[in-house]
Amino acid sequence: MDRQLIMERVRAEMPERRWRHTEGVIETAIALAIRYGEDPKRAELAAIIHDVAKFWSIERQGNAIRDNGLDQEVLGYDKELWHAVVGAWVAERDFGVTDGGVLDAIRYHTSGRRGMSKLEKVVWLADYIEPGRDFPGVDAIRALSEEHLEKAVLAGLDGTIGFLIAKGKRIYPLTIEARNGLIEELHA
Ligand code: DGI
Ligand code: FE
Ligand code: FE
Fold first, then answer.
1. 112 CA closest ligand 1 atom index
2. Residue whose C-alpha is closest to residue 39's, from 155, 114, 108, 122
3. Long-range contacts formed by 180-186: CB under 8 A, 24+ apart
4. Nearest protein Cα to ligand 1, atom 16
5. Which fold has domain 3-186?
6. Is the Cβ–Cβ distance between 141 and 152 less than 8 Å?
7. For 81-103, how does the pLDDT look when each residue is reduced to its tens digit (9 = 90+)?
8. Ligand 1: which of 55, 75, 81, 110 to mutate, most ligand atoms within 8 Å of CB?
9. Nearest to 105 by CA among 52, 172, 50
């Protein structure tokens, strides 16, 4: 499906505020892709679609995961994680995305995972630091994002994990794995 039509379809799935977040992620993902030598078109496509399922009801997200053989493990963790898995499935099934790397960047845009590709890192970080984000520490990570991709993603994961701990929530194992993997990468 053509990019413009995908954008219209995604936009129709969410309130205006969330679409503005998506526009911020698109812009940031393109800039990060150019800075770190990833294909900006692939980053843009993943960014456009990444939150497509965010405003589906939780029931609809859960059914999509159960009925289509998607990652069942995610069902045991925070519901905030589900829309990423569903988003990758929508991208392939409804939008005809065949680039497995783009699908993975959507699928892991919330959790992260060990051994993230450059595209996955770019999209993960763009989602975290897009201009509409406003939380303590985001400016420091924006600055870091101009210096070092892996260090910035690691700092973002530290922030997310700290936030989940402060809220008394469980942490999805892939998020812990993502952090461990980045630390290993940085010390390799
Ligand atoms: O969809 P967005 O709001 O743009 O951002 P996102 O897809 O990164 O979702 C972030 C939320 O997910 C954030 O509030 C933290 C929450 N979350 C819950 N459990 C986990 C988690 N995030 C990660 N990385 N790992 C978890 O286990
Ligand atoms: Fe998301
Ligand atoms: Fe997002």
1. 24
2. 122
3. 180/114, 181/113, 181/114, 181/115, 181/116, 182/116, 182/150, 182/153, 182/154, 182/157, 183/154, 185/150, 186/150, 186/151, 186/154
4. 80
5. Hypothetical protein af1432 (1.10.3210)
6. yes
7. 999 999 999 999 999 999 999 99
8. 110
9. 50
**pLDDT above 70 covers what percent of the chain?**
100
Ligand 1 center to residue 116 CA distance, Å? 16
**Range list of H helices, the chain:** 3-11, 16-36, 40-49, 58-67, 82-93, 100-107, 118-129, 138-145, 149-166, 173-187
DSSP track, 8-45: HHHHTTS-HHHHHHHHHHHHHHHHHHHHHT--HHHHHH
pTM comes to 0.97
pLDDT at residue 79 greater than cutoff 90: yes
Residue 28, ligand 1, Cβ within 6 A = no
> Which amino acid residue places its CA nearest to atom 1 of ligand 1?
51
For residue 188, the model assigns a pLDDT of 80
* CA dist., res. 35 & res. 2, Å (int): 26
Average pLDDT over every residue of 56-69:
98
